[in-house]
Fold this sequence. Notes:
Layout: H1 9-25, H2 43-52, E1 58-62, H3 65-70, E2 72-74, E3 85-91, H4 95-99, H5 104-107, E4 111-115, H6 119-126, E5 130-134, H7 137-145, E6 152-154, H8 158-165, E7 173-182, E8 187-191, H9 196-212, H10 214-221, E9 238-241
Parallel strand pairs: 4-5, 7-9
Antiparallel strand pairs: 1-8, 2-8, 3-6, 3-7
Helix pairs in contact: 1-9
Amino acid sequence: MAAAKPDFAIAQDYFVQLLRKALEAGANGRTVPIISETHLMEQDLGVQEMIRGKKVDVYWMGTDLERERKLRAVRIPLDRGLIGHRRFIIQKRMKGAFDGVADINALRSYSACQGVDWPDTRVLRNAGLQVREIINFERIFQEVATLHCEYFPRGYFEGFSEVEQRKATYPDLMFYENLILNYPFALYFFVNARDEELARWIEMGLEKMIDSGDFVKHMEDHPLTRVAFPLNKVKNLRWINVENTGMPAGTDYKNPRYWFQPEDFQK
């Protein structure tokens, strides 16, 4: 597995631990391999290394048509789709402005910051939203803090720790919880297209974790995702739904076995 930047250490641990549990659950007597991390690499380089099949065996990342064409996706979303329920990191002084955002037209008045090569950048632009692509991840927080862009869309759980980690540097940032920009989006484990045995092993393990309840328990217990639970703790959520045309055909995001559904936020 590719190594993570320090900023993504908590997220990396979430996926490494989930992969380890899946391999153990699906082992069926096989020796569970040791998971080791290689050097740092951006997603596009990770894809190329996996195609070569030498340095990286498994990579977790957001899916799109091109990635699923080149690689074998284990098509079980690793966070039950929460990554596509986007809430915003904003400047505290912008809270009143975002309190007034009720639909996509209002959101189009503001600009979002996104990373380069992120699949969801295309989702936002296809929805007619203003987007600035920033090469350096840490620079995005600076851009929001200085209002060069007004919001940074993050997965339902991501923004909590990211703001907390940077409160000394950017004390005026906050994670705005009451508005969700929602679109189908999945983080999957990917392997080399020829490594069907490994893909099926991981797949079987994740399925067993779903059956036993260990999958959701992993989410409820891990520091990355536990802040999102219970899902209904934020009242009066406002939703803006947009399409994700980059999702491969047949992605069954309305299947409650694998994906959280709108009613899960209202129970």
